Amino acid sequence: MADLYSQLGVKRDASEAEIKKAYRKLAKELHPDRNKGNPKASERFSRVTQAYDILTDKDKRARYDRGEIDDDGVARAPFGFGGGGGPRPGGGAGGFGRHPGPDFGGGEEIDLSDLFDGLFGGGGQRRSGGFGGFGRGRTAPPPQKGADVAYRLPVSFEDAATLREQRVSLADGKTVSIKLPPAVAEGTRIRLAGQGQPGPAGPGDAIVTISIKPHRFFTRDGDNIRLDLPVSLDEAVLGAKVKVPTVDGPVMLAIPKGSASGKVLRLKGKGFTGKGGQRADQLVTLMVDLPADDAELVRFVEGWSRRGKGNPRAALGV
Description:
This protein is an alpha+beta fold. Helices cover 21% and strands 20% of the residues. It contains 7 helices and 12 strands.
Protein backbone atom coordinates (compact mmCIF):
# COMPACT_ATOMS: atom_id res chain seq x y z
CA MET A 1 0.00 0.00 0.00
CA ALA A 2 1.25 3.50 -0.77
CA ASP A 3 2.37 5.58 2.21
CA LEU A 4 0.33 8.56 3.45
CA TYR A 5 2.23 11.05 1.31
CA SER A 6 1.60 8.99 -1.83
CA GLN A 7 -2.09 8.68 -0.89
CA LEU A 8 -2.33 12.48 -1.15
CA GLY A 9 0.07 12.77 -4.08
CA VAL A 10 2.58 15.02 -2.26
CA LYS A 11 6.29 14.80 -1.44
CA ARG A 12 7.49 13.85 2.03
CA ASP A 13 8.74 17.42 2.61
CA ALA A 14 5.42 18.98 1.54
CA SER A 15 4.23 21.95 3.57
CA GLU A 16 0.94 21.88 5.50
CA ALA A 17 -0.57 24.22 2.91
CA GLU A 18 0.40 21.84 0.10
CA ILE A 19 -1.11 18.90 1.99
CA LYS A 20 -4.37 20.79 2.56
CA LYS A 21 -4.55 21.81 -1.10
CA ALA A 22 -4.02 18.22 -2.26
CA TYR A 23 -6.62 16.90 0.16
CA ARG A 24 -9.27 19.43 -0.88
CA LYS A 25 -8.85 18.43 -4.52
CA LEU A 26 -9.07 14.69 -3.78
CA ALA A 27 -11.96 15.07 -1.32
CA LYS A 28 -14.05 16.87 -3.94
CA GLU A 29 -13.33 14.11 -6.48
CA LEU A 30 -13.82 11.13 -4.15
CA HIS A 31 -16.59 12.21 -1.77
CA PRO A 32 -19.26 9.46 -1.46
CA ASP A 33 -22.04 11.91 -2.37
CA ARG A 34 -20.39 12.29 -5.79
CA ASN A 35 -19.55 8.61 -6.21
CA LYS A 36 -22.73 6.78 -5.26
CA GLY A 37 -22.44 3.05 -5.88
CA ASN A 38 -18.63 3.24 -6.17
CA PRO A 39 -17.15 1.49 -3.09
CA LYS A 40 -13.59 1.95 -4.37
CA ALA A 41 -14.01 5.73 -4.39
CA SER A 42 -15.53 5.59 -0.90
CA GLU A 43 -12.63 3.51 0.39
CA ARG A 44 -10.07 5.85 -1.15
CA PHE A 45 -11.92 8.86 0.30
CA SER A 46 -11.53 7.30 3.77
CA ARG A 47 -7.84 6.66 3.12
CA VAL A 48 -7.00 10.20 1.95
CA THR A 49 -8.98 11.68 4.85
CA GLN A 50 -7.03 9.48 7.22
CA ALA A 51 -3.75 10.58 5.60
CA TYR A 52 -4.81 14.23 5.91
CA ASP A 53 -5.69 13.81 9.59
CA ILE A 54 -2.27 12.40 10.45
CA LEU A 55 -0.09 14.63 8.24
CA THR A 56 -1.72 17.90 9.37
CA ASP A 57 -1.11 17.05 13.04
CA LYS A 58 2.52 18.06 13.68
CA ASP A 59 3.05 15.52 16.46
CA LYS A 60 1.51 12.61 14.58
CA ARG A 61 3.33 13.53 11.36
CA ALA A 62 6.64 13.53 13.21
CA ARG A 63 5.85 10.17 14.79
CA TYR A 64 4.80 8.78 11.39
CA ASP A 65 8.02 10.01 9.76
CA ARG A 66 10.03 8.32 12.53
CA GLY A 67 8.10 5.09 11.97
CA GLU A 68 6.47 5.14 15.41
CA ILE A 69 2.91 4.88 14.02
CA ASP A 70 1.59 3.15 10.93
CA ASP A 71 -0.66 4.34 8.08
CA ASP A 72 -3.72 3.82 10.32
CA GLY A 73 -2.24 6.01 13.05
CA VAL A 74 -1.76 2.99 15.32
CA ALA A 75 1.45 2.79 17.35
CA ARG A 76 4.00 0.24 16.19
CA ALA A 77 4.93 -1.96 19.16
CA PRO A 78 8.76 -1.83 19.68
CA PHE A 79 10.95 -4.75 20.61
CA GLY A 80 8.08 -7.25 20.70
CA PHE A 81 5.88 -5.32 23.13
CA GLY A 82 2.14 -5.57 22.35
CA GLY A 83 0.73 -6.56 19.01
CA GLY A 84 0.88 -3.41 16.95
CA GLY A 85 -2.54 -2.05 16.10
CA GLY A 86 -4.29 -5.33 16.87
CA PRO A 87 -6.72 -7.16 14.61
CA ARG A 88 -8.80 -5.29 12.09
CA PRO A 89 -12.22 -6.98 12.07
CA GLY A 90 -14.24 -6.05 9.02
CA GLY A 91 -11.24 -4.59 7.23
CA GLY A 92 -11.30 -1.49 9.48
CA ALA A 93 -9.58 1.56 8.11
CA GLY A 94 -8.93 2.97 11.60
CA GLY A 95 -7.49 6.40 11.26
CA PHE A 96 -6.99 9.06 13.88
CA GLY A 97 -6.96 12.80 14.17
CA ARG A 98 -8.82 15.74 15.60
CA HIS A 99 -9.52 17.68 12.41
CA PRO A 100 -12.46 16.60 10.20
CA GLY A 101 -10.99 18.28 7.14
CA PRO A 102 -12.84 20.64 4.77
CA ASP A 103 -16.62 20.35 4.88
CA PHE A 104 -17.79 18.53 1.76
CA GLY A 105 -20.62 16.77 3.60
CA GLY A 106 -18.23 14.17 4.98
CA GLY A 107 -17.93 12.63 8.44
CA GLU A 108 -17.88 14.68 11.61
CA GLU A 109 -15.16 13.25 13.83
CA ILE A 110 -15.44 12.41 17.50
CA ASP A 111 -12.39 13.46 19.59
CA LEU A 112 -9.67 10.92 18.89
CA SER A 113 -6.75 12.79 20.41
CA ASP A 114 -5.82 10.65 23.42
CA LEU A 115 -3.30 8.38 21.74
CA PHE A 116 -0.30 7.63 23.89
CA ASP A 117 2.32 10.25 23.30
CA GLY A 118 5.18 8.47 21.56
CA LEU A 119 6.79 5.14 22.26
CA PHE A 120 8.83 4.92 25.46
CA GLY A 121 7.90 8.45 26.49
CA GLY A 122 7.99 10.04 23.02
CA GLY A 123 11.24 8.30 22.15
CA GLY A 124 12.03 6.92 18.74
CA GLN A 125 15.69 7.01 17.71
CA ARG A 126 17.15 10.41 18.47
CA ARG A 127 19.94 12.23 16.73
CA SER A 128 21.97 12.16 19.93
CA GLY A 129 22.09 8.36 19.59
CA GLY A 130 20.29 5.50 21.29
CA PHE A 131 16.61 4.92 21.88
CA GLY A 132 15.17 7.17 24.57
CA GLY A 133 18.57 7.23 26.29
CA PHE A 134 18.95 3.53 27.08
CA GLY A 135 22.38 2.86 28.54
CA ARG A 136 22.91 6.55 29.44
CA GLY A 137 21.57 6.38 32.96
CA ARG A 138 18.36 8.27 32.18
CA THR A 139 15.11 7.82 34.09
CA ALA A 140 13.11 4.81 32.96
CA PRO A 141 10.13 5.73 30.79
CA PRO A 142 6.67 5.59 32.35
CA PRO A 143 4.47 2.58 31.52
CA GLN A 144 2.31 2.97 28.42
CA LYS A 145 -1.29 2.11 27.62
CA GLY A 146 -2.03 -0.80 25.30
CA ALA A 147 -2.42 -0.32 21.56
CA ASP A 148 -5.65 0.98 20.06
CA VAL A 149 -7.66 -1.39 17.83
CA ALA A 150 -9.46 -0.24 14.67
CA TYR A 151 -12.89 -1.48 13.55
CA ARG A 152 -15.22 -0.65 10.66
CA LEU A 153 -18.97 -0.73 11.35
CA PRO A 154 -21.44 -0.89 8.42
CA VAL A 155 -24.66 0.96 9.32
CA SER A 156 -27.89 0.98 7.30
CA PHE A 157 -29.05 4.27 5.77
CA GLU A 158 -32.19 4.25 7.93
CA ASP A 159 -30.26 3.57 11.16
CA ALA A 160 -27.81 6.39 10.41
CA ALA A 161 -30.65 8.85 9.74
CA THR A 162 -32.57 7.97 12.91
CA LEU A 163 -29.48 7.38 15.12
CA ARG A 164 -30.53 3.87 16.09
CA GLU A 165 -28.23 2.21 18.61
CA GLN A 166 -25.71 -0.20 17.08
CA ARG A 167 -23.97 -3.33 18.41
CA VAL A 168 -20.29 -4.07 17.78
CA SER A 169 -18.47 -7.37 18.34
CA LEU A 170 -14.93 -6.76 19.57
CA ALA A 171 -11.84 -8.88 19.02
CA ASP A 172 -12.06 -10.35 22.52
CA GLY A 173 -15.56 -11.66 21.80
CA LYS A 174 -17.33 -8.98 23.82
CA THR A 175 -20.33 -7.18 22.26
CA VAL A 176 -20.89 -3.52 23.12
CA SER A 177 -23.55 -0.93 22.24
CA ILE A 178 -22.72 2.27 20.35
CA LYS A 179 -24.81 5.45 20.22
CA LEU A 180 -24.42 7.16 16.86
CA PRO A 181 -23.64 10.90 17.15
CA PRO A 182 -25.71 13.66 15.50
CA ALA A 183 -24.68 14.41 11.89
CA VAL A 184 -23.13 10.95 11.59
CA ALA A 185 -21.66 10.45 8.12
CA GLU A 186 -19.42 8.15 6.11
CA GLY A 187 -16.06 8.03 7.90
CA THR A 188 -17.26 9.25 11.32
CA ARG A 189 -15.01 7.75 14.00
CA ILE A 190 -16.04 6.86 17.53
CA ARG A 191 -13.65 6.07 20.38
CA LEU A 192 -14.56 3.33 22.86
CA ALA A 193 -12.34 3.95 25.88
CA GLY A 194 -10.55 0.95 27.36
CA GLN A 195 -11.66 -1.50 24.66
CA GLY A 196 -8.26 -1.88 22.97
CA GLN A 197 -5.27 -4.09 23.74
CA PRO A 198 -4.04 -4.44 27.34
CA GLY A 199 -0.92 -2.61 28.46
CA PRO A 200 1.10 -1.80 31.61
CA ALA A 201 -0.78 1.49 32.12
CA GLY A 202 -4.18 0.08 31.16
CA PRO A 203 -5.87 -0.96 27.94
CA GLY A 204 -5.92 1.11 24.78
CA ASP A 205 -9.12 2.12 23.03
CA ALA A 206 -11.24 0.80 20.18
CA ILE A 207 -11.64 3.19 17.24
CA VAL A 208 -14.84 2.47 15.29
CA THR A 209 -15.17 3.96 11.78
CA ILE A 210 -18.75 4.25 10.53
CA SER A 211 -19.59 3.16 6.97
CA ILE A 212 -23.13 4.06 5.83
CA LYS A 213 -24.66 1.62 3.36
CA PRO A 214 -26.23 3.18 0.23
CA HIS A 215 -30.01 2.97 -0.12
CA ARG A 216 -31.86 1.76 -3.20
CA PHE A 217 -34.08 4.86 -3.51
CA PHE A 218 -33.12 7.37 -0.78
CA THR A 219 -30.14 9.70 -1.29
CA ARG A 220 -28.56 12.12 1.18
CA ASP A 221 -28.30 15.86 0.51
CA GLY A 222 -26.51 17.38 3.49
CA ASP A 223 -28.79 16.38 6.35
CA ASN A 224 -31.84 16.24 4.07
CA ILE A 225 -33.01 13.05 2.35
CA ARG A 226 -34.14 13.11 -1.28
CA LEU A 227 -36.64 10.78 -2.95
CA ASP A 228 -37.98 10.66 -6.53
CA LEU A 229 -41.66 9.71 -6.22
CA PRO A 230 -43.56 8.33 -9.25
CA VAL A 231 -47.18 9.61 -9.45
CA SER A 232 -49.88 8.81 -11.98
CA LEU A 233 -51.25 11.39 -14.42
CA ASP A 234 -54.59 11.64 -12.65
CA GLU A 235 -52.87 12.10 -9.25
CA ALA A 236 -50.81 14.95 -10.70
CA VAL A 237 -53.70 16.65 -12.54
CA LEU A 238 -56.48 16.21 -9.97
CA GLY A 239 -54.42 16.08 -6.76
CA ALA A 240 -54.35 13.16 -4.35
CA LYS A 241 -53.11 11.82 -1.04
CA VAL A 242 -50.50 9.10 -1.56
CA LYS A 243 -48.37 6.91 0.67
CA VAL A 244 -44.65 7.83 0.68
CA PRO A 245 -41.74 5.85 2.19
CA THR A 246 -39.51 7.54 4.80
CA VAL A 247 -36.69 6.25 7.02
CA ASP A 248 -39.27 6.15 9.85
CA GLY A 249 -41.86 4.22 7.83
CA PRO A 250 -44.56 5.21 5.29
CA VAL A 251 -46.52 8.48 5.68
CA MET A 252 -49.33 10.14 3.71
CA LEU A 253 -48.42 13.06 1.42
CA ALA A 254 -50.87 15.47 -0.25
CA ILE A 255 -50.18 16.01 -3.98
CA PRO A 256 -51.51 19.45 -5.05
CA LYS A 257 -53.72 19.72 -8.12
CA GLY A 258 -51.89 20.45 -11.35
CA SER A 259 -48.50 19.19 -10.14
CA ALA A 260 -45.86 18.74 -12.84
CA SER A 261 -42.83 16.48 -12.92
CA GLY A 262 -40.00 18.03 -10.95
CA LYS A 263 -42.18 19.68 -8.31
CA VAL A 264 -40.56 19.26 -4.88
CA LEU A 265 -42.62 18.65 -1.74
CA ARG A 266 -41.20 18.69 1.79
CA LEU A 267 -41.77 16.24 4.65
CA LYS A 268 -40.64 18.01 7.83
CA GLY A 269 -38.39 16.16 10.28
CA LYS A 270 -37.87 13.07 8.13
CA GLY A 271 -34.19 13.63 7.31
CA PHE A 272 -30.90 13.03 9.17
CA THR A 273 -30.28 14.39 12.65
CA GLY A 274 -28.04 17.46 12.43
CA LYS A 275 -25.31 18.69 14.78
CA GLY A 276 -27.84 20.58 16.87
CA GLY A 277 -29.94 17.46 17.43
CA GLN A 278 -32.79 18.54 15.12
CA ARG A 279 -34.02 16.30 12.29
CA ALA A 280 -33.74 17.74 8.78
CA ASP A 281 -36.38 17.13 6.08
CA GLN A 282 -37.21 14.68 3.31
CA LEU A 283 -37.49 16.36 -0.11
CA VAL A 284 -39.86 14.52 -2.45
CA THR A 285 -39.52 15.19 -6.20
CA LEU A 286 -42.66 14.27 -8.16
CA MET A 287 -42.15 12.24 -11.35
CA VAL A 288 -45.34 11.96 -13.44
CA ASP A 289 -45.56 8.42 -14.81
CA LEU A 290 -47.34 8.35 -18.17
CA PRO A 291 -48.81 5.06 -19.41
CA ALA A 292 -47.44 3.67 -22.65
CA ASP A 293 -49.76 3.05 -25.64
CA ASP A 294 -52.94 4.31 -23.95
CA ALA A 295 -55.23 5.02 -26.92
CA GLU A 296 -57.74 7.04 -24.90
CA LEU A 297 -55.02 9.29 -23.50
CA VAL A 298 -53.55 9.77 -26.99
CA ARG A 299 -56.95 10.87 -28.39
CA PHE A 300 -57.46 13.28 -25.49
CA VAL A 301 -54.03 14.89 -25.91
CA GLU A 302 -54.47 15.20 -29.69
CA GLY A 303 -57.76 17.02 -29.17
CA TRP A 304 -56.32 19.16 -26.38
CA SER A 305 -53.27 20.18 -28.41
CA ARG A 306 -55.50 21.56 -31.20
CA ARG A 307 -56.97 24.10 -28.75
CA GLY A 308 -53.74 26.08 -28.66
CA LYS A 309 -52.09 25.45 -25.31
CA GLY A 310 -49.19 27.92 -25.85
CA ASN A 311 -45.45 27.35 -25.80
CA PRO A 312 -44.17 26.14 -22.37
CA ARG A 313 -40.58 26.94 -23.45
CA ALA A 314 -41.25 30.57 -24.34
CA ALA A 315 -39.38 31.84 -21.27
CA LEU A 316 -36.25 30.08 -22.59
CA GLY A 317 -36.37 32.06 -25.82
CA VAL A 318 -37.03 28.99 -27.99
